[in-house]
Amino acid sequence: MIHQAKSLAKSVVGKKSTILLAATLGLGGLFFSTTASAAGLGVQQTSAERGQEIAFTRKLGNCLACHHINGGVSGGTIAPPLVGMKLRFPDRAQLRAQIYDPRVKNPDTSMLPFGAHSILTPAQLEDLVEFLYTL
Amino acid sequence: MINETKGKKMNHISTKTIAGLLLLGLSSLVSASPESDAKAFKKYFTDRFPDVPYNDYINGAYTIDKSGRENWEAIEEFPPYEPFIDEGRAMWEKPFKNGKTFKTACFPDGPAIKHKYPMWDKEKKMVMTLPLALNNCLKANGEKPMKYKKGPINNIMAYLAYEARGKKINVVIPKDEPGALAAYEEGKKFYFQRRGQLNFSCASCHMQNAGLKLRSEILSPALGHPSGFPVYRSKWGTVGTLHRRFTGCNKQVRAKAFKAHGPEYRNLEYFLTAMSNGLEWNGPSARK
């Protein structure tokens, strides 16, 4: 995060102030979480990055509980690995619908109705789909 | 709120689940008896894990988790629940203020009585569980009842489980008691009913996905589940009761937990234990 913020700073400001800014950033990184310091400088996570966080976090999507996902640790074996998602779901709306309420296609599924039961917000679903399309 | 409304709705629309039950022969729609249910329940697992000897199902996830098993066997050599058994024995033997003990006041066949529960109480017309019977005994003798999930109840339950080790699980649903069958059916419905924001039934994890991994944890098979309770759970850092585990499972799927030894969990225990008829009692035991 800090690294990205630094390079961004470099492109935005002149050479002289770069050193000062970089120093401030370094300090910020020491005292604040990287996200906080980056956000403070207007550097935002991309939708796909937020989606990955949702997929890996237990209290959010927790997709790793059941699916293997590249980049994630100890994915479960209950459901198919999440690979080639764009190929499997060329229609983005269909992928979103599958996460929103997988019972529509398979009433006996073990998968959670993430949208229908308000486990994730519509914005979080969008981020998640964005992330899944990178797989 | 979501839990309840969704749950009820699910009960009516989850036709596939009912189809699944029919396949298992577990639905009352085909006028299944507890005996044929137990047979189908057993067959479901023995078909799924053909290499596992039937009597092994008393070992929870370690029935099928081969790598975890070695670790567990090492733990069982110096069991973390041992001090609880000793404490429980002292509780069993300690006289009440009126001079009577659990044995002389209420449980003449004790201390090996755990295998008699859960049972249908013909007088009270309800499923009687051992913790409830112990507390009824305490109250009848002017003693303070125990809390059901944490604390001393686990000591005495650990001791009583230990004393009944090796006895066969044999839950009886008396045919001349319509209430008993109704309670059993309630427990069965509970078991297959999806609930909570996460929309899981007990069967979703412990039948449908038994043996598969949830992150790095192998989901334990339902067959034999009650045998090892109470369990020393590393996650708890202490011994806990079956109803504490029920509570935890319900909370994990973000559903409303019910009262320990209230009708819902008592009926659930009645059904779940009956499904393991023929296996041995093996409590207390150690779990992750």
In short:
With about 140 residues, chain A is mostly helical. Chain A has 2 domains: about 40 residues, no CATH class; about 90 residues, Cytochrome Bc1 Complex, Chain D, domain 2 (Orthogonal Bundle), CATH 1.10.760.
Notes on the protein architecture:
- The complex is a heterodimer of chains A (135) and B (288).
- Chain A is 51% helix and 0% strand.
- With 135 residues, chain A is mainly alpha-helical.
- Chain A has two domains: 2-40, no CATH class; 47-132, Cytochrome c-like domain (Cytochrome Bc1 Complex, Chain D, domain 2), CATH 1.10.760.
- In chain A, helix 1 (2-12) packs antiparallel against helix 2 and helix 4 packs across helix 7.
- The longest helix of chain A has 17 residues, at 15-31.
- In chain B, the strands form three sheets. A three-stranded mixed β-sheet of chain B has the order 6-5-7. Chain B has a two-stranded antiparallel ribbon with strand order 1-2. A two-stranded antiparallel ribbon of chain B has the order 3-4.
- The longest helix of chain B is centred in the first third of the chain and has 15 residues, at 34-48.
- Helix content of chain B is 46%, strand content 7%.
- Chain B is mainly alpha-helical and 288 residues long.
- Chain B has helices spanning 2-13, 15-24, 34-48, 66-77, 82-93, 102-105, 130-140, 153-163, 178-192, 202-208, 242-252, 263-274; strands at 119-121, 126-128, 213-214, 217-218, 231-233, 238-240, 285-287.
- Chain B has a single domain (1-288), classed as Cytochrome c-like domain (Cytochrome Bc1 Complex, Chain D, domain 2, Orthogonal Bundle).
- Chain B contains twelve helices and seven strands.
- At the A-B interface, loops of A face helix 1, helix 2 and strand 3 of B.
